[in-house]
Recover the amino acids of this structure.
């Protein structure tokens, strides 16, 4: 079973996206902050995919991607799930190592289409 690390400071988003992923036979590890996600990664969590919010207190999504890439997730697909849609933010995320970008609110079937593109076998 593939594992997804889902990072968002919104309990509602964590709950709803986690539900979609679990219904599609994915194991889900959640983190409420970039700091918590990095602790999990450094503690041995090796997700097949990471989905992160962009705007979070402390370590934001772009910084999280940069640090996760340096912490052993060099080739792990990473998606940004955010309310932001500015091209400059997308470019910044891509430069940091993001694989893709989704704008909230995202429908479950749309989310799974993207995940299947970046995570074969999901």
């Amino acid at each position: 079973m593939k594992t997804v690390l889902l990072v968002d400071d919104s309990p509602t988003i964590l709950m709803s996206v986690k539900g979609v992923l679990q219904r599609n036979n994915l194991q889900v590890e959640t983190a409420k902050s970039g700091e918590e996600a990095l602790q999990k990664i450094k503690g041995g969590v090796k997700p097949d995919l990471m989905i992160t919010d962009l705007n979070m207190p402390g370590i934001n999504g772009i910084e999280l991607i940069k640090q996760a890439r340096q912490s052993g997730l060099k080739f792990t697909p990473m998606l940004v799930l955010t309310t932001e849609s500015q091209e400059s933010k997308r470019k910044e995320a891509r430069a940091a190592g993001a694989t893709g970008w989704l704008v909230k609110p995202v429908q479950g079937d749309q989310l799974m289409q993207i995940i299947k593109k970046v995570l074969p076998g999901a």
Notes: The helical segments are 11-23, 34-42, 61-70, 87-96, 108-118.
